[in-house]
């Protein structure tokens, strides 16, 4: 059986990718909601959609099949029939704070009356109180958030499809995410994997599901080759989750090495892929801001230990040496974001200058606004496909964050 998921590297020719076209959810909020929703500004939707279509077309023009999360989710619900729709709605309402009660019932009736695509879109966009003809009478609605405009918050971060799940080999992780603003997102990925005809019952391994209290996000999960992963210890991914997924991979897959890389825990560098990406067999982007004195950074190489489920950990502080050892390379090229200039690097990293998406070895998609980093990549021999980025960048994610590779060709060397 050919697996519908096949992703054994960061750089193999990209064949199939999962995107989410930004919808009303990216403008359905006010400035005071931005910190909680993990946004730094409110994008102008028509322009953001134009930019996203440009990104999708750039991928298509390079032979990539583009799948859309919102469409797959509705198709999965169509395939699962009324029973699945009910189960999904119950779960989504519970995770939105309405396990039972009159508000639960009113929201469920409202959503259940829609066809699956409209319902999926509506859940993603958020539900305002003025949309439903219903006056809540429970204490929480009356006493705690009577003035709050929403029953269900929008999910503006959905266009960063990288994070709620991550394809690794012929399986994936479906992630328990860190902040409430994003935790419901991976429910869409779960129903797609379990019920969409393209993925269900095809032997796809779930290396780690979303039913955990420890946290991991796809922006931290880098598939370096067919047996080595790098995973960020970051604001969004905890060390215990890394040990957990490493244990599962060591047990049931060919993965035998997980390099945990400690990065600063802050909003600008929330995931490893905002500061470090693999773009060729021996080339990486690195934001100089993650390197300490003497270029040092804490890395922990996890490999299977002697006993069942045991893990051996080796601590190193030289990123280049760690990567050379794990990838069996004589040398490698770490390309500094913004050419290492502290102002340019800080500015371009903020706008995702390190967040490159490789669509083949040495071929990357980047935001056009990061012109210093882009020029440097070209000087280092890479082919750079620039995409427009005024509005999309306001959500703090770039081309790697906006894409979840599902199928890549295997590497030839
Ligand atoms: N992989 C990534 O770095 N994704 C970008 C996520 C940005 C989003 N506003 C967030 O804070 O989660």
What does this 3D model show about the protein?
Belongs to the arginine deiminase family. It is an enzyme of class 3 (hydrolase). GO terms for molecular function: arginine deiminase activity. It catalyses: L-arginine + H2O = L-citrulline + NH4(+). One of its GO terms (biological process) is L-arginine deiminase pathway. By secondary structure, this protein is of the alpha/beta class. It folds into two domains: 14-69 and 156-408, L-arginine/glycine Amidinotransferase, Chain A, CATH 3.75.10; 71-152, Orthogonal Bundle (Pentein), CATH 1.10.3930.10. Helices cover 32% and strands 21% of the residues. It has twelve helices and 19 strands. It has a five-stranded mixed β-sheet, sandwiched between helices. It has a three-stranded mixed β-sheet with strand order 2-1-19. It has a three-stranded mixed β-sheet with strand order 5-6-7. A hairpin with a 6-residue loop joins strand 13 (299-304) and strand 14. It starts with 13 loop residues before the first strand and ends in a 5-residue tail after the last strand. The relative contact order is 0.16. The model has no long low-confidence stretch (mean pLDDT 95). Citrulline binds next to loops.
Please sum up the structure shown.
The protein is of the alpha/beta class. It has 12 helices and 19 strands. The protein folds into 2 domains: about 15-70 and about 155-410, L-arginine/glycine Amidinotransferase, Chain A, CATH 3.75.10.10; about 70-150, Pentein (Orthogonal Bundle), CATH 1.10.3930.10.
């Amino acid at each position: 059986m050919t697996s519908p998921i096949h992703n054994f590297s960061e750089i193999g020719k990209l064949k199939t990718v999962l995107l989410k076209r930004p919808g009303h959810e990216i403008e359905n909020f006010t400035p005071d909601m931005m910190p909680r929703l993990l946004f730094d500004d409110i994008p102008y939707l028509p322009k953001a959609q134009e930019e996203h279509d440009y990104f999708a077309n750039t991928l298509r023009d390079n032979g990539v099949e583009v799948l859309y999360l919102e469409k797959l989710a509705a198709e999965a619900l169509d395939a699962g029939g009324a029973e699945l729709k009910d189960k999904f709605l119950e779960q989504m309402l519970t995770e939105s704070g309405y396990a039972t009660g009159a508000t639960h019932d009113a929201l469920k009736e409202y959503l259940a009356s829609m066809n699956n695509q409209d319902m999926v879109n509506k859940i993603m966009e958020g539900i305002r109180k003025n949309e439903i003809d219903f006056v809540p009478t429970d204490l929480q609605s009356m006493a705690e958030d009577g003035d709050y405009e929403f029953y269900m918050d929008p999910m503006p971060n959905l266009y960063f499809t990288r994070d709620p799940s991550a394809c690794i080999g012929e399986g994936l992780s479906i992630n328990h995410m860190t902040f409430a603003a994003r935790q419901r997102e991976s429910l869409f990925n779960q129903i797609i994997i379990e019920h969409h005809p393209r993925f269900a019952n095809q032997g796809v391994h779930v290396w780690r599901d979303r039913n955990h209290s420890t946290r991991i996000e796809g922006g931290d999960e880098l598939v370096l080759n067919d047996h080595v992963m790098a995973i960020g210890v970051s604001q969004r991914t905890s060390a215990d989750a890394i040990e957990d997924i490493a244990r599962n991979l060591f047990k049931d897959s060919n993965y035998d090495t997980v390099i945990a890389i400690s990065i600063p825990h802050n909003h600008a560098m929330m995931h490893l892929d905002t500061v470090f990406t693999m773009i060729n067999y021996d080339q990486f982007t690195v934001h100089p801001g993650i390197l300490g004195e003497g270029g040092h950074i804490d890395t922990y190489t996890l490999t299977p230990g002697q006993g069942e489920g045991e893990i051996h950990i080796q601590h190193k502080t030289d990123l280049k040496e760690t990567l050379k050892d794990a990838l069996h390379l004589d040398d490698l090229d770490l390309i500094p974001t913004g050419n290492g200039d502290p102002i340019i690097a800080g500015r371009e990293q903020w706008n995702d200058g390190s967040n490159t998406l490789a669509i083949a070895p040495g071929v990357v998609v980047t935001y056009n606004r990061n012109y210093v980093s882009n020029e440097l990549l070209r000087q280092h021999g890479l082919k750079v496909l620039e995409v427009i980025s005024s509005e999309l960048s306001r959500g703090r994610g770039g081309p790697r964050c906006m894409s979840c590779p599902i199928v890549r060709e295997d590497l030839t060397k």
